[in-house]
Write a structure and sequence with these properties.
Elements lengths: L2 H11 L7 H5 L8 E6 L2 E6 L2 H21 L12 H19 L9 H12 L7 H10 L12
Antiparallel strand pairs: 1-2
Length: 151
């Protein structure tokens, strides 16, 4: 499939693309508002509620901006984060929220539930203890790659 045609089709079938798509596709977290969409041989994640989607966009934008220094990246220049750094921001921030609001819960965190709880307690994402979230982002370790067992 032509990649440009794929992107165009993707945007038309998934107008509310989940800002946490990478972490949801890695199956490390879950979201009560997500909608899985299969397009060609790929899996996409969208949102079922516009306000929830906007909350996620606002939260992840704040973290990307603040994580640049912590991840030793140049100041915000409008370019997307490299894939590995984006994985750290998405997964680390959700796990940081889980540690902050549900420290005894070892299950998969629900992104929508955590953001809803954050807004209820702090009234805005800017008032969250970002230093604690930055620690979770920096300390997040991605899964190790599978080793070739035929050696």
């Amino acid at each position: 499939m032509d990649e440009n045609k794929y992107r165009e089709t993707y945007r038309s079938v998934n107008p509310l693309q989940c800002p946490f798509e990478k972490t949801l596709n890695s199956r490390r977290c879950q979201c009560s508002k997500m909608e899985r969409i299969h397009l060609a041989d790929r899996e996409c994640v969208g949102c079922s509620e516009k306000q929830a989607w906007q909350n996620c966009r606002d939260f992840i934008a704040l973290l990307r901006k603040n994580a640049k220094f912590a991840l030793k990246l140049p100041e915000a220049d409008g370019t997307p984060l490299p894939h590995g750094k984006e994985i750290k921001v998405q997964n680390g921030s959700v796990l940081g929220l889980q540690k902050l609001f549900q420290p005894d819960d070892k299950g998969k965190p629900d992104i929508h539930g955590l953001l809803k709880q954050a807004l209820a307690e702090y009234q805005s994402f800017e008032k969250l203890p970002l230093d604690q979230l930055m620690q979770s982002i920096v300390n997040f370790k991605a899964r190790e790659t599978r080793k070739d067992k035929k050696k």
